[in-house]
């Protein structure tokens, strides 16, 4: 088994040198990362096409634009993100200074998947750089051309002491997980995520786990069904269905199903023609193992659209199934391919009950024009994220956190969330050491008395001031200061008068 002791020692030495703490260093590295995206875009497109036969349109829309937007956001906002926060003060701390500092964790291990192999490797890397960490990237061996691209160009553009790429398969992954990292960012399946989490627990290593699951899609009768069908099919079949937040199955009534199928047949023909295998707009399945798993699902229920496949090209047509059984494998495994089953329910209430009986999904999709139906799902279904009358696009909004809940993962990223996920928020209380601060704090010292206890409890009591009175504690301290001065000068004048008499 490969040992990575030396690699970790070298990276730890680079972090301990303090070079990544400098904001100027971080900005330089982020600028270098941006140059990589701009100068090597064609190479990225070629690698994605070789691994997944990914269309240029999807590669640019679903990976490269996210890389550029994320690094630009980090560069534009780095000072703000990295600055210490100053939380509000309770009355007991009115003379103190309160800070929350953003400390880098240290060495971050980034383990990325094969379905979006560039974005899900390099977006976390940008966050690690911005937060002041060193990083080791382990790209997926199932996307070898993209992994080779990352291994070739990351060392050319970024600091070779602080940022490294390790390629390989299961053996290399297992060897890396034996090392002690300060943070692990993993994107992939729930099964492997549980293994990663177990390995991290040995060292109590904090993690972000971006996992998968079965993301349901409720389709109501009160929405424009043609538009809804387009949005569902687009979200399902982009990247060959190999998207962690793709609609996994549809929940709808039998009447809505009939209309959906009519629209779906027409739309898929418009998009991909009579012979979808000949189009350049559909991805292939990543490998034979996944292809065999997916084609086995075609035995579930009845194929009403698509169903064709080619084992030589690892191609599966966009396929829709009906009459699936709830105990079929397709309804218990994450599909992660271009197969869309439909499950009939009577109404939204039954759909909510069905979803709640399953593990919490990474994404929830609700198509309905009824605000009460929308609120029903928002209030009663826990999911990593959701779209109403849309699919997938919540991922594209960098001001929304992206992450899972329950078996679909924990932790989140995108924009500021990416930065925050890569740093520890260190609380700091800074007190004065003058006579006034000591006088206010002296009630805590022995010997104890009832009046000391009463005064201290009153000082420490949480008070819910109205929002417009948030400056009241400052006024109280100002008044206390004036009162102290008045008392002092009154006493001094009284003493001078007595002495003069």
Architecture overview:
- This protein is an alpha/beta fold and 501 residues long.
- Helices cover 46% and strands 16% of the residues.
- It has helices spanning 5-16, 23-39, 41-52, 56-82, 119-130, 144-157, 170-177, 190-201, 225-237, 254-272, 288-297, 348-356, 371-380, 416-421, 435-441, 450-460, 472-500, and strands at residues 97-104, 107-111, 134-138, 163-165, 183-187, 207-210, 215-219, 247-252, 302-305, 309-310, 315-316, 319-322, 339-344, 363-367, 385-388, 402-403, 409-410, 412-413, 423-430.
- A seven-stranded mixed beta sheet has the order 9-12-13-8-7-14-15, sandwiched between helices. A six-stranded mixed beta sheet has the order 4-3-2-5-6-17, sandwiched between helices.
- Strand 14, helix 13 (371-380) and strand 15 (385-388) form a beta-alpha-beta unit.
- The protein is globular.
- The model has no long low-confidence stretch (mean pLDDT 92).
Instruction: Please work out how many helical segments DSSP would assign.
Output: 17
Whole-number mean pLDDT: 92
End-to-end distance? 95 Å
The outline comes out as: globular
Summarize the main sheet. Answer: 7 strands, mixed
The parts where pLDDT drops under 50 for at least 5 residues are none
Q: What is Rg?
A: 29 Å
Task: Count the beta strands.
Answer: 19
Helix content: 40-55%
């Amino acid at each position: 088994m490969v040992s990575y002791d030396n690699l970790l020692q070298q990276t730890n030495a680079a972090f301990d040198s303090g070079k990544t703490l400098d904001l100027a260093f971080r900005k330089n590295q982020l600028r270098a990362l941006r140059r990589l995206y701009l100068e090597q875009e064609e190479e990225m497109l070629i690698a994605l096409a070789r691994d997944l036969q990914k269309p240029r349109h999807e590669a640019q829309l679903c990976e490269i634009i996210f890389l550029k937007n994320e690094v630009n956001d980090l560069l534009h906002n780095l000072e703000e993100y990295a600055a210490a926060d100053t939380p509000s003060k309770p009355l007991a701390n009115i003379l103190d200074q309160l800070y929350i500092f953003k400390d880098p964790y240290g060495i971050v291990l980034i383990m990325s998947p094969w379905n979006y192999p560039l974005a899900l490797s390099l977006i976390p890397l940008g966050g690690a750089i911005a937060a002041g960490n060193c990083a080791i990237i382990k790209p997926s061996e199932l996307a070898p051309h993209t992994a080779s691209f990352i291994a070739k160009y990351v060392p050319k553009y970024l600091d070779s002491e602080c940022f490294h790429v390790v390629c390989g398969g299961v053996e290399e992954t297992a060897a890396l997980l034996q090392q002690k990292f300060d943070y692990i960012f993993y994107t992939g399946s729930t099964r492997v995520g549980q293994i990663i989490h177990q390995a991290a627990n040995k060292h109590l290593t904090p993690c972000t786990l971006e996992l998968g699951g079965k993301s349901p899609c409720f389709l109501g009768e009160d929405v424009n069904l043609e538009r809804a069908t387009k949005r569902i099919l687009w979200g399902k079949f982009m990247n060959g269905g190999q998207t962690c937040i793709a609609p996994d199955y549809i929940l709808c009534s039998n009447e809505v199903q009939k209309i959906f199928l009519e629209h779906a047949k027409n739309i898929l023909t418009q998009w991909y023609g009579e012979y979808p295998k000949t189009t350049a707009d559909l991805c292939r399945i990543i490998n034979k193992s996944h292809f065999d798993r997916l084609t086995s699902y075609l035995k579930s229920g009845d194929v009403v659209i698509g169903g064709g496949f080619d084992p030589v090209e690892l191609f599966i047509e966009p396929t829709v199934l009906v009459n699936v059984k709830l105990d079929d494998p397709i309804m218990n495994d994450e599909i992660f391919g271009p197969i869309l089953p439909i499950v009939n329910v009577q109404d939204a209430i039954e759909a909510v009950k069905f979803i709640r009986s399953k593990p919490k999904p990474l994404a929830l999709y609700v198509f309905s024009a009824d605000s009460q139906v929308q609120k029903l799902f928002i209030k009663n279904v826990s999911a990593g994220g959701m779209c109403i009358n849309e699919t997938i696009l919540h991922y594209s909004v960098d001001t929304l956190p992206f992450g899972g809940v329950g078996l679909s993962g924990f932790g989140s990223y995108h924009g500021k969330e990416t930065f925050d996920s890569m740093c520890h928020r260190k609380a700091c209380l800074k007190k004065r050491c003058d006579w006034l601060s000591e006088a206010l704090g002296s009630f805590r010292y022995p010997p104890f008395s009832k009046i000391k206890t009463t005064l201290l409890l009153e000082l420490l009591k949480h008070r819910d001031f109205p929002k417009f009175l948030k400056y009241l504690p400052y006024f109280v301290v100002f008044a206390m200061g004036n009162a102290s001065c008045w008392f002092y000068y009154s006493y001094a004048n009284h003493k001078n008068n007595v002495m003069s008499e």
